Q: What sequence folds into this?
């Protein structure tokens, strides 16, 4: 379709709310972005910020019956929101594929690796058994699995976690998808293996000219691997920018907090620790105004009353949602006022003290990381 | 593997010891005198004659001695003779009766599995929707109706009303498959309904758990069809408890077809066992009990081995 610069994926005001007896969980609450073919978007946010729900909503893979989706997802010129599961199935595997978080549970333990690699090739592409086997072995080789012929006949439990994630990547690549979702593909793996897997994904993405959405809670993971980054908080995009812009000119205090929480000595395993003071907000009854306010070192009165809209920054393609952005005069003033007033999260961010109960959790977490 | 089989064999022997000993004690505790049963009520006055018979059969020895004698004979394949039908070998009785009951049990299990898998799979796949609620209700009914009622209903419908099948009687397999089927299909169905209900509930609940697994979501994300996912990816991991219960219930059916055998006048093991119990025909009771126990343990051992086929992860441990 069209030239290389038309976006292959246009997401507009996408929302997924879950209906519960106690209220609506606004897991994804008005997310928009565009992604060009062959680019990688890093989606970053804490646990519970809606990253998984977002990627599953885009793919139409939202199995919960209490999910309510609105907004628009245009893939390759075609609206996906509202398609039936039967219509979406035509796209799964061939157009869009997903690598899941936990390779230990996302392969069927009682089905041989070979079948799991070939069954959708045969179903979608009508490949013969021998052809499918040949290309599966080729795939295994391309994801750097030694002795692919033998591995073809293995059961998943006969492989290590890293090997299994390589198999999962091969499974996702098997039908040549144009868009690849990788939802925290390495958080369940050993530190040493994480980098290999991430590099493998990046390499496959380049070679196949795939569009990739790389979901992670670790800003460090997407640093060198994504073209663009979207930071999510409580179901909303709070900052979007190209990777280099984000790291050189981040505006949102939450992005800054995520940046500070990048583990310096390699990535610890997926511990779901809140490396930022306080907890993510209640998604059913979020606080009025900015949802980050209770935890934000810059927060002022205005933040608690008026929700900041996404606004454009001077750099092209950069936007953020904040009243007192990092690096601005207003931001600096707000921060210093808070510091002087002894606002706990500001003191904590400044590394001076851990005041509240919540902050002591952070302290414990910080020790674990070191 | 050899070690595992060795352990299984030891367990089998220990189980058989326990079962035979217990059943020996219990049958000896049955009220009523086998000697009277043999000689008839008239002989009740003739204590000398009764005593002679008891001495003859070894009934006067202490139970451990009698058990030991029985056991050493049984170990050589001699299960003794019927007290009542003089000259009738217990092994021969079993050999005559087993094919009938075993066929009923096997047919019942196969019918039950064939019905239970689709029902359980549909119930799990459509959990909470009308397909699930209607099948669950039907299964509940099948579970609460005793099998002889189902048998009576089948007789009323197919023998009395429609006249398609004989109401009772039994044609052996050797008389021809078709003739045999005409007499075996109703009792087997009657036995199968309860089993079907138990099996389909198990399949449904195991399947519901399996369908929540990540690998099912991953299979969907590959664009595979739901039916394929259910059959290829979900059914096998959901059938371990089904295998277990099939093993247990097959053993139970071998000894538990009495009512249905009586209803349909089928010359099976259960029929003969009830007979033997009412006649205090101790060696026949003992022989049949041991046979059922052996089959029971063997079937369950086979099921254990089947696990490793269904779930390759078990092979390691
Ligand atoms: N079926 C559901 N019903 C109700 N709430 C749900 C459902 N699925 C997800 N949620 C909620 O949606 C929110 C976002 O969840 P999501 O899994 O997308 O977070 P995430 O950013 O992927 O976090 P993590 O890093 O832990 O994977 C969470 O608060 C979660 O509890
Ligand atoms: S400064 Fe205000 S608007 Fe900006 S993130 Fe903090 S609380 Fe929200
Ligand atoms: Mg997630």
A:
């Amino acid at each position: 379709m069209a030239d290389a610069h038309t976006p292959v994926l246009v997401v507009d005001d996408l929302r997924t709310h879950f209906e519960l007896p106690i209220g609506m969980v606004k897991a994804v609450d008005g997310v928009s972005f565009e992604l060009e073919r062959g680019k990688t978007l890093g989606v970053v946010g804490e646990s519970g910020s809606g990253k998984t729900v977002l990627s599953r909503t885009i793919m139409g893979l939202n199995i919960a019956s209490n999910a309510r989706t609105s907004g628009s997802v245009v893939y390759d010129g075609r609206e996906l929101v509202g398609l039936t599961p039967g219509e979406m199935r035509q796209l799964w595997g061939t157009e869009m594929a997903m690598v899941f978080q936990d390779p230990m549970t996302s392969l069927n333990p009682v089905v041989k690796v070979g079948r799991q690699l070939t069954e959708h090739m045969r179903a979608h592409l009508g490949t013969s058994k021998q052809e499918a086997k040949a290309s599966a072995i080729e795939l295994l080789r391309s994801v750097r699995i030694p002795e692919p012929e033998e591995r073809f006949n293995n059961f998943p439990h006969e492989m290590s976690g890293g090997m299994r994630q390589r198999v999962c990547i091969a499974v996702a690549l098997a039908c040549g998808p144009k868009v690849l979702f990788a939802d925290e593909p390495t958080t369940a793996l050993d530190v040493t293996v994480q980098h290999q897997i991430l590099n493998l994904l990046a390499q496959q993405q380049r070679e196949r000219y795939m569009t990739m959405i790389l979901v992670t809670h670790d800003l460090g993971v997407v640093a060198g691997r994504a073209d663009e980054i979207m930071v999510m908080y409580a179901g909303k995009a709070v900052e979007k920018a190209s990777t280099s812009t984000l790291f050189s000119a981040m505006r949102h205090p939450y992005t800054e907090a995520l940046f500070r929480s990048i583990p310096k000595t390699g990535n610890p395993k997926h511990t779901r620790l809140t490396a930022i003071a306080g907890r993510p907000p209640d998604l059913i009854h979020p606080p009025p105004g900015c949802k980050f306010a209770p935890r934000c070192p810059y927060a002022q009165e205005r933040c608690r009353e008026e929700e900041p809209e996404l606004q454009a920054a001077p750099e092209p393609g950069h936007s953020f949602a904040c009243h007192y952005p990092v690096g601005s005069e207003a931001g600096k003033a707000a921060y210093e006022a808070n510091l002087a007033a002894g606002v706990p999260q500001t003191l904590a961010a400044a590394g001076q003290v851990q005041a509240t109960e919540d902050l002591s959790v952070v302290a414990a977490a910080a020790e674990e990381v070191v | 593997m050899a070690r595992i089989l060795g352990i299984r064999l030891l367990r089998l022997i220990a189980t058989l010891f326990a079962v035979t000993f217990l059943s020996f004690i219990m049958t000896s505790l049955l009220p009523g005198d086998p000697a009277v049963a043999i000689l008839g009520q008239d002989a009740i006055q003739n204590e000398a004659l009764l005593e002679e018979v008891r001495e003859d059969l070894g009934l006067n020895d202490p139970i451990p001695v009698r058990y030991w004698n029985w056991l050493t004979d049984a170990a050589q394949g001699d299960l003794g003779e019927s007290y009542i039908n003089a000259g009738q070998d217990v092994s021969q009785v079993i050999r005559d009766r087993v094919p009938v009951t075993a066929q009923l049990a096997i047919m019942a299990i196969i019918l039950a599995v064939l019905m239970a898998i689709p029902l359980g799979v549909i119930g799990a796949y459509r959990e909470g929707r009308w397909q699930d609620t209607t099948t669950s209700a039907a299964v509940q009914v099948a579970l609460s109706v005793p099998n002889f009622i189902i048998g009576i209903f089948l007789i009323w419908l197919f023998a009395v009303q429609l006249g398609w099948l004989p109401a009772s009687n039994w044609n052996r397999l050797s008389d021809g498959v078709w003739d045999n089927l005409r007499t075996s299909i109703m009792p087997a169905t009657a036995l199968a309904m309860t089993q079907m209900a138990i099996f389909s509930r198990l399949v449904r609940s195991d399947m519901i758990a399996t369908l929540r697994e990540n690998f099912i979501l991953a299979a969907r994300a590959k664009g595979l069809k739901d039916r394929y996912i259910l059959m290829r990816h979900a059914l096998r991991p959901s059938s371990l408890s089904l295998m277990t219960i099939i093993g247990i219930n097959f053993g139970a059916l071998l000894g538990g077809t009495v009512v249905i055998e009586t209803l349909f006048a089928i010359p099976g093991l259960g029929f003969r066992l009830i007979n033997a119990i009412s006649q205090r025909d101790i060696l026949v009771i003992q022989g049949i009990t041991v046979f059922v126990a052996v089959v029971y343990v063997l079937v369950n051992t086979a099921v254990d081995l089947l696990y490793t086929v269904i779930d390759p992860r078990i092979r390691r441990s």
User: Anything to note?
Assistant: Chain A has 14 helices and twelve strands. Residues A 252-253, 290, 292-293, 296, 298-299, 303, 308, 322-324 surround iron/sulfur cluster (ligand 2) (CB under 6 Å). The longest strand of chain A covers residues 7-20. Residues 191-208 of chain A form the longest helix (18 residues).
